[in-house]
Amino acid sequence: MPLRLATLDLDGTLLPHDTVFAAVLRDNGKARQVEESDARYFAGAITLEECFWEQWDWVRALTPADLHRALRKAAWLPGIADGVRRLKEAGLRVCLLTDQPSTLTDFLGRWGLTDAICSPVTVKGGRQVAIDGRFDKLANLRARLREWNIAEGEVCHVGNGVNDVPVFDAVGRSIACFATPEVARHASQRLAEPKDLGQIVDLILA
User: Do residue 170 and residue 83 come from a single domain?
Assistant: First the structure.
């Protein structure tokens, strides 16, 4: 089945070995707090969702302008704009697939990633006042596929995390990048350490 949609994970994929929460919090004086929070998650003391809500309490105190200023300094995977352009020129729709807030995913619009399946944030008076946390990537993707009239078999998903595994198992093609062996075995293709998005696009378009 030919591909019609490429979905890209954010944390650990387009932002290799990092999260957008950590990137913005480090830049705003919360480096120690986010490191301790992440350590509790990796030790199994809190769940991924509990880690999200803990760090969201710090993130929501920042303005969208604060967030985007910090994200400009982050260590993004090179070649995002060119890779997204190539996918669109090949006739694919391109979309972020993440549970991260829309006030953070909006940043990637500068590189052509204007579609995002994410957690919507309500902003009033330049402040983040509420978020609809959406953590089930596969359910969220399926809702959008119904809207776009795209079949799961027409999707290629690129990701690296445990929460990408249900998507890997459901869609037509999948590429694991910067992933553990346990996660990577669920993907149809693997790129351990791509140097830029172009390498990933080469696989998608092959």
Answer: yes
Assess contact for 150 and 137: CB atoms under 8 A: no
SS3 119: strand
pLDDT of res. 122: 97
- Say what the pLDDT of residue 178 is: 97
Q: What are phi and psi of 14, to 5 degrees?
A: -70, -25
Rounded-to-integer distance, Cα 39 and Cα 16, Å: 18
Q: Are residues 57 and 90 in the same domain?
A: no
User: Which conformational region is residue 29 in: left (phi greater than 0), alpha (psi within -120 to 50 degrees), or beta?
Assistant: left
Tokens representing residue 190 in the block: 């693997």
Regarding whether 93 and 60 lie in a shared domain, the answer is no
> What pLDDT does 205 receive?
96
In this structure, are residues 144 and 154 in contact, taking their beta carbons and an 8 Å threshold? no
User: What is the model's pLDDT at position 171?
Assistant: 98
Burial class (CB in 10 A: 0-12, 13-18, 19+), 163: buried
Residues of the chain with pLDDT under 50: none
What are the angstrom distances between the C-alpha of 32 and each of 36, 59, 100? 6, 14, 21
Instruction: Determine the Cα angle at 59 with ends 78 and 8, to 5°.
Output: 35
pLDDT of residue 1: 83
**Residue 141, CB-side half-sphere exposure with 13 Å CA sphere:** 29
Domain residue limits at 46 = 20-71
